[in-house]
Amino acid sequence: MSLTRKKELVKEKVVRSHGCRGACIRCTKVHRLIDKMAESNIPIGYWFLNMKEFKGAPKLKEIVDDYITTISDKYMDGNSICFAGNQGTGKTMSSICILKEAIKKGFSAHYITASDILNEATDSRHSYNLKALLRDVDFLVIDELDSRFFSSDNAKELFSGIYENIFRFRSHNTLPTIMCTNETDGILSVFHGQSVQAINSLNKQYLTIYPVVGPDFRKQQVKHAS
Ligand SMILES: [Zn+2]
Questions:
Q1: CA distance 36 to 189
Q2: How far is the CA of 113 from the centre of ligand 1 (A)?
Q3: Per-residue pLDDT tens for 84-132?
Q4: I need a surface site. Which of 81, 91, 103, 219 has the fewest CB within 10 A?
Q5: Strand, helix or coil at 64?
């Protein structure tokens, strides 16, 4: 079973639960959205979640609602933001809701974690295509920008070089990047080595950091359910 197969199963389920024969306008639209979300690397578990059912930090919902309603301006301005907060505040879901809105508006979008950037960008079989994609895509989410995923200063340094290259290109071309980190003091501890100073000044100039601290809302949900 591959993710492609799973995607097809999800599409079949959409039709089944709609009760049509599959070629109706609604299901065709949903199927097209599914293809785009899969192409954008959005994890399947987030495909059908939306901000209306959002259970995370209320402040996050406000920021996302604002971003979404003015998404075309955000694209033109290249508005880059970073959600910095503890686990369970809804950062991943928020960032993905922005991507889904971008897709619906016809923009290209891509979701990736910081550790996947490091793994894939240092693998010569994919590195060229991936870097080009991450530089060019209209809306990019970099999730889990957390120092715990980088086992050594060496790994951090390697990642820092890649990050600087991608984020500099995107910022200078006014392309929006959305980042999420569990580092509540900001993302500087993720970086190491020669690029740190340059990254520092890039982030200062182009990145708005939103601290989102709060209880782990996922735990609360479980508590309420029991
Ligand atoms: Zn249908």
A1: 34
A2: 34
A3: 998 888 999 999 999 999 999 999 999 999 999 999 888 877 777 899 9
A4: 219
A5: helix
- Residue 20 Cα to ligand 1 midpoint, Å, equals 4
35: tokens are 């293809």
* pLDDT tens by residue, 188-197: 889 999 999 9
Distance CA 32, CA 67 (A): 24
19 Cα: distance to centroid of ligand 1 (angstroms): 6
Span from the CA of 118 to the centroid of ligand 1 (angstroms): 41
Backbone angle region of 88, left / alpha / beta, with phi > 0 → left and psi within -120 to 50 → alpha: left
Q: What is the pLDDT of residues 131-189, one digit of tens each?
A: 999 999 999 999 999 999 998 999 999 999 999 999 999 999 999 999 999 998 778 88
User: What domains lie within the chain, and their CATH numbers?
Assistant: 1-39 (no CATH), 48-225 (3.40.50.300)
Neighbours of ion ligand 1 (CB under 5 A): 18, 20, 24, 26-27
